[in-house]
Amino acid sequence: MQKSGLTRKSEFEWIVEPRGRMRVPGVIFADERLIEEMDDKVRDQVSNVAGLPGIVKASFAMPDAHWGYGFPIGGVAAFDPGDGGVVSAGGVGFDISCGVRTMLTGLPRSEVEKHKEKLADVLFARIPAGVGSRGDIRLSLSEMDALLREGAEWAVRRGYGPDEDLERIEERGRMEGADPSCVSRQAKQRQLEEMGTLGSGNHYLEVQWISEIFDEAAAAAFGLREGETAVSIHCGSRGLGHQIGTDFLREMAVEAGRAGIALPERELACAPIRSEVGRRYLGAMRSAINCALANRQILGELTRRAFREVFPGCRLRLLYDVSHNTCKEEQHALDGARRTLFVHRKGATRAWGPGHPLLPEIFRGVGQPVLVGGTMGTASFVMAGTRRSMDIAFGSAIHGAGRRLSRRRATREYRGGQVIGELARRGILVRAKSQRGVAEEAPAAYKDVSEVVEIAHRAGLARKVARLEPLVVVKG
């Protein structure tokens, strides 16, 4: 069956056959309804990525994919440095290492419901959020360099959370290969007062309750119990990451021309991995990953302190912290051999399967936790990585619901106050700095997260473990 230039390979895989400059096929994971709804620009961007030098296997789009800057959001692509492979700032995105951290409270929903109003107010007061938000931490440039090298380890050393958290963070909280000297002074200065802040846009802190368990063994390994509550934090590297993306997009546009790489659009600007620009971008991008890991570690500790104000003695335990805007150097099986590849995941989450040697031992038997953010009015999910995902998509999965409406269109169709009121009537309390921001993130502006998760589950990208529904939402 063919639809809009796609060939259906299986129930949940659609192929864009190589044509023109494409070096590999494109693969979109979706069912027929999602394919019908998906913007044609996703297919076009998948095809454009498939034409970049050194790409291997395929250019992928996850079920939550939508149009992005150069790469589709929900895009995955791996490049071989030995075959002229490239690294692309557009393939990582501007919010470098944006990700999700989920912590378990051990409190039953009934107990949280009794104090929900107070909890919402305390969290809103204690968690800096919004455009240009500033935290209580003030850093010198030398301290910033230390943070960019050490990531969450730096935050733990400063008293933000226990050492045991590090075992449950991607890269154990510290991305190796970070080089703060590759980060511009402007990028660092933008971040000097933004550590421990949530930001705006689709970033949030959410108190949730675990409404359904799908996989008892994985839920037990993760510490998830039906009826108990959790907290999820979604944010990234703030102004520093955005500035790095801006700085290197310009450099890469020049470098691509110098390297003889024809770009179908400027936003696909890239540089050979082994070029001087490529090496500097990797050093800066890894620094931004550490910035994001430290930021979420600080926010996690601020959340713990806020909870203790309302529930004395409460101890929030970290389930996991994983990013979804990165380029990682990883080993993958390809054509019967292990190869070192640079895997871009933009709006896509790492999802390593059971037995992966780099997973913490506590997760090795069931696979890596995959944290999938939903919307203020629907649900989020905890999934687990699969061995099949390692085979079909370099161990990658969805990161959220995926936008259905642009932010501009959402603000034309919805009003923040109306959204807040409707959610309050359903028992979901929203505390937000900006009503426009709430309108941009209206639940109806997103795809059906349950459908997206079901497709990812049935396609083998990750498997469902638990469903979490919102009680309190803090937004910028």
Question: How would you explain this protein's 3D organization?
Answer:
This protein is of the alpha+beta class and 476 residues long. The protein has one domain: tRNA-splicing ligase RtcB, CATH 3.90.1860.10. The protein has helices at residues 32-37, 40-49, 109-114, 116-126, 141-150, 152-157, 185-191, 216-222, 238-258, 276-310, 361-364, 387-393, 407-413, 416-425, 435-440, 449-459; strands spanning 2-3, 6-10, 13-16, 26-29, 55-66, 73-79, 86-88, 99-108, 204-213, 228-235, 270-272, 317-323, 325-334, 337-346, 349-350, 369-372, 380-385, 396-397, 429-432, 462-475. Strands 1-2-3-4-5-6-14-13 form an eight-stranded mixed β-sheet, sandwiched between helices. Strands 8, 9, 10, 12, 16, 17, 19 and 20 form an eight-stranded mixed β-sheet that branches. A two-stranded antiparallel sheet has the order 7-11. The protein is globular, with a radius of gyration of 21 Å. The relative contact order is 0.18.
